[in-house]
């Protein structure tokens, strides 16, 4: 097996069984955009179960595919909890407690890896640093996939908080973070920073790096046009998965009504975004809304039983 196949086998053995019965996916709705609803289970310790699953995904979030396979085959870590703590301390920048976006980013990464099985990391985003040595501020997820011989970039945004914050934050990101100049700057930066990822990623990074080098003396607008022309010529399309993970405890009050309540959440988010028009100059992305109501965000962020349990 090649590295990608080995990585997928490890992921399916270690994470897929843990996700069964913890994360539930429902029928999507396709209208102006693509809407995919999720929920966690309704057990009394549902948030603890989701938190454990997210924490155990940390190895796969913080390390590239080749790195994961190497560590796994050597037995570097005794278990995924140990790997999570090591990754949290050594791979991630210091962030303010209970206000950082890490849980949302890890949850989005988990959902993509669970349900988009042909996806690969474009770069190991958690260890990327900007020119000022702070963590990169661009996209919360950078993956790509192959479909029918074509390449699709997955450039994601994750919002975790109250519903209004999630909706407004995603709306703002879709306006600000997908302008052609912003997109090209992020792609040039990310594709120059490969660590421990698959050979398949070279199909994108080699092309992007050639444009980066060939145009580095030109202004931002011309560089952006050159990159988007390159994408069009090479059949590279863009998906924008946006996670809205917000507290909605009422969804989980009665397990017999959860399907209807998830559908109500889906319709509410769909109405909000279907009234928005996003213009993208030079490319036509597919916007995917991951809708994930949560029972208790404070518990999810907690150091005792929540996502940060054993990490701090």
Give a description of the structure.
- This protein is of the alpha/beta class and 312 residues long.
- It has 13 helices and eight strands.
- It has helices at residues 3-14, 16-19, 46-56, 58-62, 65-74, 80-90, 102-115, 163-176, 180-191, 202-215, 220-233, 258-274, 297-300; strands at 23-25, 29-30, 34-40, 119-121, 141-147, 150-161, 236-247, 286-294.
In short, what is this structure?
With 312 residues, the protein is α/β, with parallel strands linked by helices. The protein has helices spanning 3-14, 16-19, 46-56, 58-62, 65-74, 80-90, 102-115, 163-176, 180-191, 202-215, 220-233, 258-274, 297-300; strands at 23-25, 29-30, 34-40, 119-121, 141-147, 150-161, 236-247, 286-294.
**Radius of gyration using CA atoms only:** 19 Å
Principal-axes shape call: globular
- Helix count, DSSP H or I runs of 4 or more residues: 13
Largest sheet: 8 strands, mixed
**Helical content (DSSP H or I, runs of 4+):** 40-55%
**Percent in strands:** 15-25%
Structural category is: alpha/beta
Tally of distinct domains: 1
Q: How many beta strands in the DSSP annotation?
A: 8
Order of helices and strands: HHEEEHHHHHEEEHHHHEHEH
User: What's the end-to-end separation, in Å?
Assistant: 37 Å
Mean pLDDT score, rounded?
A: 91
Which ranges are low-confidence, i.e. pLDDT below 50, for 5 or more consecutive residues? Answer: none
